[in-house]
From TrEMBL:
The keyword Iron belongs to this UniProt entry's keyword annotation: no
GO molecular function, one term: iron ion binding
Keywords: Dioxygenase, Oxidoreductase
Name listed for the protein in its UniProt record: Phytanoyl-CoA dioxygenase
PANTHER family the UniProt entry points to: ECTOINE DIOXYGENASE, PHYTANOYL-COA DIOXYGENASE DOMAIN CONTAINING 1
Tagged with keyword Ubl conjugation: no
SUPFAM superfamilies: Clavaminate synthase-like
Entries under Pfam families matching the protein: PhyH (PF05721)
Length: 255
């Protein structure tokens, strides 16, 4: 990828809060990561988060209920082997993020750092939210990467984004007690009507700001959707001491 195309994508991210970098991961990389993720999912290799744990709309009522063994996330992707580590710290990701931050990118091993799954049955709906809601850093200019390991559309649970929401000033009353953006408020509806869902092909990567509002529907297809997700911050930004964000050291990326 040329420096000019990266610069254009960075400008788009700054402007609208997200951008798609097409075919950033090679077919071989995607194929290998997907196969390993499917193996670990089939073998239920811990640590896992289950749909029943989060209790979002459409999730099973409990681990003991029908569908209770449906996984939502394979946690600690960085610790799941060299394939995952290689992608999270890859030169192409490091170069992109260095252009954005103008600083050394640092991988968070606390936030995201997972394979997100979306199952056709019992895969829950995710409401509008900003990722920064439960994070604690000295600054809020963090960026996440979402690598599509298969096709992603609105119908199989692909991400929807609200362009420009990362730069907006919202009041606490516009969110519910779980810090989800309230769809019942007229002032929020004006934002939600702008929602876009970029269709992704395997190897496409979405870079999105931690303040960008995003959501996802349930998966109405007949295939499990898999995505590899990581979060990064610039080296000059620090996790706040004593918080979950500071509980595990980050990984600086060579640039």
């Amino acid at each position: 990828m040329s420096a000019s195309s990266v610069a254009e994508q960075v400008a788009t991210l700054r402007n609208q809060g997200f951008v798609v970098a097409r075919q950033l991961a090679s077919p071989d990389t995607v194929k290998a990561i997907r196969a390993e993720a499917q193996r670990q999912l089939a073998e239920a290799i811990e640590p896992l988060e289950y749909e029943a744990d989060v209790q979002y709309p459409g999730a099973p009522a409990s681990r003991q209920a029908q569908g209770g063994a449906t996984a939502r996330r394979l946690l600690n992707a960085y610790g799941r082997g060299p394939l995952f580590q290689a992608w999270a710290t890859s030169p192409v990701v490091a170069k992109w993020l260095h252009t954005y931050f103008a600083d050394t990118p640092v991988l968070s091993k606390v936030h995201h750092n997972c394979v997100m799954t979306k199952h056709p049955a019992y895969g829950s709906l995710t409401g509008w939210h900003q990722d920064i809601r439960y994070w604690s850093f000295s600054d809020d200019d963090l960026v996440s990467t979402w690598l599509a390991l298969g096709q992603e559309t609105a119908d199989n649970g692909g991400l929807f984004f609200l362009p420009g929401s990362h730069a907006a000033s919202f009041s606490a009353s516009q969110f519910d007690e779980q810090k989800f953006f309230r769809a019942d408020l007229p002032e929020n509806q004006n934002w939600i009507e702008r929602a876009v869902c970029p269709e992704l092909q395997p190897g496409d990567v979405v870079f999105f700001h931690c303040r960008t509002l995003h959501a996802a529907r349930q998966n109405s297809s007949d295939q499990v959707k898999l995505s590899l997700v990581h979060t990064y911050y610039p080296q000059t930004t620090t996790p706040l001491p004593g918080t979950r964000s500071a509980s595990v050291p980050g990984v600086p990326l060579a640039t």
